[in-house]
């Protein structure tokens, strides 16, 4: 039986650390606890402004992932600086995301329709693949037909669908049917070409359920809710609960 994978994003452990400029809470320890509890991978986002994850976190977290036999998913902008870091570190996965300095968190998916942005993303993927051929790449995008078909012309392995708008509508008790339909249609486009189909952003224990029922996504990357909930019941316990939920919904095929 095949089940969806859970990637635990530990950025906001670093957010708490950076608030005081201390060495604690340790990001590497969060990775260790998450993986020991059963998380399938660790996700960290090294932002241009270094607001949470720092450069030194990348190799230390990656070392922990290697020790535990699990992949590191490095989220990053498609800049020359970040491409060089990815090539040097050679994570198992890179997820290219858009970045704006003024945003609170990543807002929306990559714009691959704009030709300039498309060329920048395309070049970043080609450079990473050329010098770190074992690194797989996902593109963080909206579940839009034109966008997804455009992604297929880029040298990558998967898309991660931005679920932020869905998550907000779910939280506000709005009808999410249109989101689910678009995710279903997106899965058809990407899977028939052999691409991975992942999801992430804004998801909680409750909003994850309709997506699991759809059985379209093979991987979920969840961070803010997990870290927030762990304040009350502990990181390991939250991850166990989420994995138990995921394992109630085997994927088809």
UniProtKB/TrEMBL annotation:
Pfam families: PdxJ. GO terms for molecular function: pyridoxine 5'-phosphate synthase activity. Pathway: Cofactor biosynthesis; pyridoxine 5'-phosphate biosynthesis; pyridoxine 5'-phosphate from D-erythrose 4-phosphate: step 5/5. The active site is at residues 45, 75, 201. Gene3D superfamilies: Aldolase class I. GO terms for cellular component: cytosol. Belongs to the PNP synthase family. Catalyzes the complicated ring closure reaction between the two acyclic compounds 1-deoxy-D-xylulose-5-phosphate (DXP) and 3-amino-2-oxopropyl phosphate (1-amino-acetone-3-phosphate or AAP) to form pyridoxine 5'-phosphate (PNP) and inorganic phosphate. This is Pyridoxine 5'-phosphate synthase. It comes from Peredibacter starrii. The gene is pdxJ.
């Amino acid at each position: 039986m095949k089940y969806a994978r859970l990637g635990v994003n530990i950025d906001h452990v670093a957010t708490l650390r950076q608030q005081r400029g201390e060495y604690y809470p340790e990001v590497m320890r969060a990775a260790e606890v998450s993986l020991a509890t059963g998380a399938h991978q660790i996700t960290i986002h090294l932002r241009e402004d270094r607001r949470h994850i720092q450069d030194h976190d990348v190799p230390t977290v990656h070392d922990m992932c290697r020790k535990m036999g699990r992949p590191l998913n490095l989220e990053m902008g498609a800049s020359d600086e970040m491409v060089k870091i990815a090539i040097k570190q050679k994570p198992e996965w890179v997820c290219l995301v858009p970045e704006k300095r003024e945003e609170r968190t990543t807002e929306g998916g990559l714009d691959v329709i704009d030709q300039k942005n498309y060329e920048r993303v395309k070049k970043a993927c080609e450079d990473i693949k050329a010098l770190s051929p074992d690194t797989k790449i996902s593109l963080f995008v909206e579940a839009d037909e034109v966008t997804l078909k455009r992604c297929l012309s880029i040298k990558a392995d998967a898309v991660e669908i931005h679920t932020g708008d869905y998550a907000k509508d779910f939280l506000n008790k709005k009808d999410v049917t249109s989101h689910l339909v678009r995710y279903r249609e997106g899965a058809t486009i990407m899977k028939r070409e052999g691409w991975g189909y992942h999801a992430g952003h804004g998801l909680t224990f409750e909003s994850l359920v309709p997506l699991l029922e759809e059985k379209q996504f093979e991987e979920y990357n969840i961070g803010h809710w997990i870290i927030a909930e762990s304040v009350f019941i502990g990181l390991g316990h939250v991850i166990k609960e989420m994995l138990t939920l995921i394992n109630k919904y085997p994927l088809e095929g």
